[in-house]
Amino acid sequence: xxxxxxxxxxxxxxxxxxxxxxxxxxxxxxxxxxxxxxxxxxxxxxxxxxxxxxxxxxxxxxxxxxxxxxxxxxxxxxxx
Length: 80
Prior knowledge:
By secondary structure, this protein is mainly α. It has helices spanning about 5-15, 25-30, 35-45, 45-50, 55-70. The longest helix is centred in the C-terminal third of the chain and has 20 residues, at about 55-70. The termini are far apart.
Protein backbone atom coordinates (compact mmCIF):
# COMPACT_ATOMS: atom_id res chain seq x y z
CA UNK A 1 0.00 0.00 0.00
CA UNK A 2 1.36 3.40 -0.95
CA UNK A 3 1.92 6.27 1.47
CA UNK A 4 -0.87 8.26 -0.19
CA UNK A 5 -3.30 5.34 0.13
CA UNK A 6 -2.46 5.15 3.84
CA UNK A 7 -3.18 8.87 4.27
CA UNK A 8 -6.47 8.54 2.40
CA UNK A 9 -7.57 5.67 4.63
CA UNK A 10 -6.48 7.56 7.76
CA UNK A 11 -8.62 10.57 6.81
CA UNK A 12 -11.58 8.42 5.75
CA UNK A 13 -11.47 6.34 8.95
CA UNK A 14 -11.29 9.43 11.17
CA UNK A 15 -14.20 11.00 9.24
CA UNK A 16 -16.25 7.84 9.69
CA UNK A 17 -15.27 7.53 13.38
CA UNK A 18 -17.16 10.79 13.91
CA UNK A 19 -20.11 9.60 11.77
CA UNK A 20 -19.30 12.15 9.08
CA UNK A 21 -20.01 15.11 11.34
CA UNK A 22 -16.57 16.75 11.12
CA UNK A 23 -15.73 19.55 8.74
CA UNK A 24 -12.55 19.53 6.66
CA UNK A 25 -11.08 22.12 9.03
CA UNK A 26 -11.86 20.01 12.09
CA UNK A 27 -10.31 16.92 10.48
CA UNK A 28 -7.35 19.03 9.47
CA UNK A 29 -6.79 20.07 13.08
CA UNK A 30 -7.18 16.54 14.41
CA UNK A 31 -4.78 15.02 11.89
CA UNK A 32 -2.37 17.95 11.46
CA UNK A 33 -2.68 18.02 7.69
CA UNK A 34 -3.92 20.86 5.46
CA UNK A 35 -7.70 21.13 5.04
CA UNK A 36 -7.25 21.17 1.25
CA UNK A 37 -5.61 17.75 1.50
CA UNK A 38 -8.47 16.50 3.68
CA UNK A 39 -10.99 17.54 1.03
CA UNK A 40 -8.93 15.98 -1.73
CA UNK A 41 -8.51 12.72 0.19
CA UNK A 42 -12.24 12.45 0.87
CA UNK A 43 -13.29 13.09 -2.73
CA UNK A 44 -10.61 11.61 -4.98
CA UNK A 45 -11.10 8.87 -7.53
CA UNK A 46 -8.52 6.79 -5.66
CA UNK A 47 -10.62 7.06 -2.48
CA UNK A 48 -13.59 5.58 -4.32
CA UNK A 49 -11.38 2.71 -5.52
CA UNK A 50 -10.11 2.03 -2.00
CA UNK A 51 -13.37 2.21 -0.04
CA UNK A 52 -16.03 1.26 -2.57
CA UNK A 53 -18.99 3.09 -4.08
CA UNK A 54 -21.34 2.75 -1.08
CA UNK A 55 -18.89 4.23 1.44
CA UNK A 56 -17.87 6.93 -1.03
CA UNK A 57 -21.54 7.88 -1.54
CA UNK A 58 -22.03 8.05 2.24
CA UNK A 59 -19.05 10.41 2.61
CA UNK A 60 -20.31 12.57 -0.24
CA UNK A 61 -23.77 12.80 1.36
CA UNK A 62 -22.31 13.69 4.76
CA UNK A 63 -20.16 16.44 3.24
CA UNK A 64 -23.19 17.91 1.46
CA UNK A 65 -25.20 17.80 4.71
CA UNK A 66 -22.33 19.43 6.61
CA UNK A 67 -22.10 22.20 4.04
CA UNK A 68 -25.85 22.78 4.20
CA UNK A 69 -25.75 22.97 8.02
CA UNK A 70 -22.84 25.40 7.88
CA UNK A 71 -24.69 27.66 5.46
CA UNK A 72 -27.82 27.62 7.61
CA UNK A 73 -25.74 28.75 10.59
CA UNK A 74 -24.64 31.88 8.76
CA UNK A 75 -22.00 30.56 6.40
CA UNK A 76 -21.46 31.88 2.92
CA UNK A 77 -24.14 31.18 0.37
CA UNK A 78 -22.16 30.19 -2.68
CA UNK A 79 -23.77 28.97 -5.86
CA UNK A 80 -22.37 25.64 -7.04
